[in-house]
Specification:
By secondary structure, this protein is an all-alpha fold. It has one domain. About 90% of the residues lie in helices and about 0% in strands. The protein contains three helices and no strands. α1 crosses α3.
Length: about 90
């Protein structure tokens, strides 16, 4: 999963970061550029962490819903079976 995260980070950086040839980057000192890149990378990692948390929450909610539906189905089948057995 680490490779996926790095690929996503690189893709996001290439899309959202201005190109190196842009005039705004030509006159910035290297230290300022390095700091802004570090902040940018940190924000991307925070966004990825948040999206993973949201994904995990959605997965657990979906699992809980499936479990609830399955138990409801089992209960209905038990009731049907009891009615059949009582009827015979």
């Amino acid at each position: 999963m680490g490779k996926d995260t790095n690929a996503i980070v690189e893709r996001l950086e290439s899309v959202s970061r201005p190109s190196i040839q842009s005039p705004s980057n030509e006159f910035r000192p290297k230290a300022t550029k390095a700091i802004s890149e570090r902040i940018h990378r940190q924000r991307i990692h925070e966004l990825l962490a948040n999206s993973k948390t949201i994904h995990a929450t959605v997965e657990s909610d979906a699992f809980a819903l499936l479990k609830q539906q399955a138990s409801a189905t089992i209960e209905r089948r038990k009731k049907k079976l009891k009615r059949r057995l009582m009827g015979q």
